[in-house]
Every structure is written in structure tokens, then in C-alpha cells.
């Protein structure tokens, strides 16, 4: 009898999690999608963003989001992968036990703190070194790259450790060095886990808002170089939702819908890749 | 000159001493069997010879000479190319049969496609596996049967063009037919290679080896011509072991 009650309660909790996800999805699309059709696809995917005067073009923000995300990966993937390889293959147990929690702690730092560090250190550095405003694609990419490190490191690390030790022995036995074993055997064998980590990190980068608002400059145009200011989909929503009304508000929900679709597609890729062993 | 000379070899895992003052010569192109109960140091001996013990965080003292040269003066990848090893459980690498064979050689030098073809053919033929797999070289090696995987591992060792092949209980998980095939392979290959065969199967040692060494608790108790060791051993412990009184 008690078991039955506990089971029902757990079922209810599990269902409520799914239900809230379903409701959020429904709400975002219900608020956003009608505007896309009202404005027309040509208007919606144009460059003109003047939502109070029927200009709903979000193309520059989509491009901005993608640029910042690609930049974050360019920073985060090499460092993250290198970190995971070092931890899994080249470091002692003590170092692993010390470093891994510290790297995972990076994920717990509030994004506003990252943004703050960006404003205080990175933005002036970029302005003084490369010119331009400093608030730029580059600044956002570097900060986001650091923010996605814990995801990439810990998932890639687990994937590398999951490669059977016998593979390593077999490889050493034919005279491979440690480095050759990593490059030619372990990375290919752990590929699915590593790619999943990268895609999850990518999802995090594209969805990040606060840090990006603080350091990307938020200018409404397609950046000409990585030293130019940029505005992302998430920044637009956060900056404008406070005062938006009517079609403007709906347009922000439409941005949210597009973001939602991008993230769902990324997650489907992640699940596909990790599932295929 | 002996192919491999072992002098006063000790091997330790932390505090545990797995090999105690071993002195042993392995002649060129012989099959030397190493027998003994569990924990006698047989596998440790093999892992010392190609310095694979290093990945187990073990340490050794004493000398091991390959063709008169200290193995610690030979670059490690060169040493492991010259002394191949086949493990008790077949260790196939991920990927195709062909890739399993080309993996080792490709680590050491650039080789073209036609050379890989030759190498795959030669290695598989020598390991008596070619006829069974010639039509599916691109298939995953993990799909082969246990006996075939083990012969693939032998082929992989051969593809390195080694001088010595260490066999660590290569037939322990195999059926009698596969075992017979591997033994036949060894006897054919003996003309070109030196074998050290660790085995728990004393009958196998008697069938294929020229000389046999008996190890017990990390010590070399007795070594001699296989036939003599099995018919009239000098040490009573050897006698007890081969008659199955312990171990």
C-alpha cells in the first residue's frame, strides 16, 4: 500500500517535469509563431529590426548567435579536449581527483561573474591591443569558450576513460607511444562521447545570455570582423522584453522559438551520436 | 649468443616481489615454454621483456639483453616492434581486420596501400587465418570468433616483423580445434621467430616447446629440454607440478 502511494507520488513528480516542459514549449510557440506568419518569412529573416515599426528582421541576430557560438567552440574545444586528454591519460590519480572537481566548479560560477571579468579584463585588453570597441565577437567567444569548458572536459574525460584498457595494452604492445595511442586509437574510440560533449557545450554557448549581453556590445548589425560588436538572439530577448508590447513582444517570442528549434536540433544530434556506439 | 639473456632479474609491484633473481637464456629460433602455477611470475617475465611492465607501475632490477644489447638502451617503440606479444584474451583493436594489422606498422613508418595489402596478406597467411577472412578484411575485427581473434593478434604481432614473439597463455580461452591451429602456426613460424610461450597447459608445453622453464612463486626452479623436464625432472617440485600434485 505504502509502495503504491510512493510510486504514484514519484510518477506525479516525473510527469509534472515533462508537463512543464510541454507547457513552456507550447507557450513559446503559441506566442511567437503567429507573428512569423503575420510578418512574412521575408520580413522575419531580413536585416531590418525595428519591431515598433513592423520591421521584424532577426537575420543579424541569428548570424550573431552563430558567430559567437562558433567562436566559443573554437576556444573551448581545443582547450577542453586537451584538458580531458591530459586528465584521462597523462596525469596521476591525485591530479585527476584534484583537477576534475575544480573544472566542474567552473560550471557553478554565475554567468554574470563571467561577464564582469570580461568587462574588467578582457574588453579593455582587446580594445587596447586590436583597437575597436573591445565589446566584440572575440570577447564573447573567449568568455563563452571558458564557460563551456567544464561540459566538454568532463564528458570527453568520461568517454576516454570508458575506452577499454585492453585497447591501450594492444597499442603499446605494437610499440605505440602514449601520444600515438591517444591520437590514433583513443580519440577515434571515444569519438561519440567527445562529439556529444561538444554539442552540449554548443547548446550552452548558444543559449547563454547574461555574459554575452555584458561583453558583446549588442550592436544591431552583422559584424564585419571578430573585433566588431555583435548582438545575439538571447541578448535581444533579455534586453527588450522589459518594455516590449504587442507585436514587438510577439517578435521576441518568435526569436525564442527559433532559438528553441536550434537547441532541439543540436540535442537530437547529441542523442543520435551518443546512442550510436 | 643467446637471443635473450636475463641476468639477476627482479620485478616488484609496490611491495610485492613477482620475480626473484631470474637468470635465463633464450636461444634464437627456439620455442621456450614457461610453466608454473598461478602467481609464479610467468606473465611478469613476459611483461618485463618488452617493458610492458612500465604501464603497470612495476619496477625491475637486473639486466635483460636482446642480442647482447641492454633493452633499456633500445628505444621503446623499437624494442616493442622487435619483441611482439600476444595476450591471453585476444585484444583486437576497434576497426576492421585490415586496420588491426596496419595499425602497428603505420606507427613506425609511412606505408602505401599496396604495401599494406602485402603486409596483410603475409601476416594473415603466416597466422593461418587468410583463407577464413580474405573476403571480409574490411569487416570489424570484433566480429571474428575467439580463435580467429587470437590468430589475428598473432598476425598483428607478425605484421611488425618482430624477432621474438611472447605468448601469454594464448590458448587459455580457446576450444581444442583453435588451440591446435595456433600450435600448428607456432611450429611453422619457429623457423623464423623465437617464441616464449607462457602456458597453464603442461601438455601444450610438451607438444610444442624445445625447452621448458618451470617457475614457482617468482623463482625459476628448473629449466631444461622439454622432453627431459617432463620425463625426469631433477627438482621434486617440478615433478609434483607436472604430475598435477599441486597448482
Describe it.
The complex is a heterodimer of chains A (277) and B (247). Chain A has 277 residues and is an all-alpha fold. Chain A has one domain (2-275): MetI-like (MetI-like fold, Orthogonal Bundle), CATH 1.10.3720. Chain A is 78% helix and 1% strand. Chain A has 13 helices and two strands; from the N terminus they run H-H-E-E-H-H-H-H-H-H-H-H-H-H-H. In chain A, strands 1-2 form a two-stranded antiparallel sheet. Chain A is globular, with a radius of gyration of 22 Å. The model of chain A has no long low-confidence stretch (mean pLDDT 91). Chain B has one domain: P-loop containing nucleotide triphosphate hydrolases (Rossmann fold), CATH 3.40.50.300. Chain B has helices at residues 42-49, 76-82, 97-108, 113-126, 130-133, 146-159, 176-189, 202-208, 226-231, 236-242, and strands spanning 4-13, 16-26, 31-35, 59-66, 69-70, 83-86, 164-168, 194-198, 211-216, 219-225. In chain B, the strands form two sheets. In chain B, strands 6-7-8-3-9-10 form a six-stranded mixed β-sheet, with helices on both faces. In chain B, strands 2-1-4-5 form a four-stranded antiparallel β-sheet, with helices on one face. In chain B, strand 9 (211-216) and strand 10 (219-225) form a beta hairpin. In chain B, helix 3 (97-108) runs parallel beside helix 6 (146-159) and helix 4 packs across helix 6. Chain B is globular and about 55 Å long. Chain B starts with a strand and ends in a 5-residue tail after the last helix. The relative contact order of chain B is 0.18. The model of chain B has no long low-confidence stretch (mean pLDDT 90). The chains are: A mainly alpha (277), B alpha/beta (247). Chain A binds chain B through residues 166-177, 180, 184-185, 188-189, and chain B through 50, 52, 55, 76-81, 84-85, 87, 89, 91-95, 103-104, 106-108, 153, 156-157, 160.
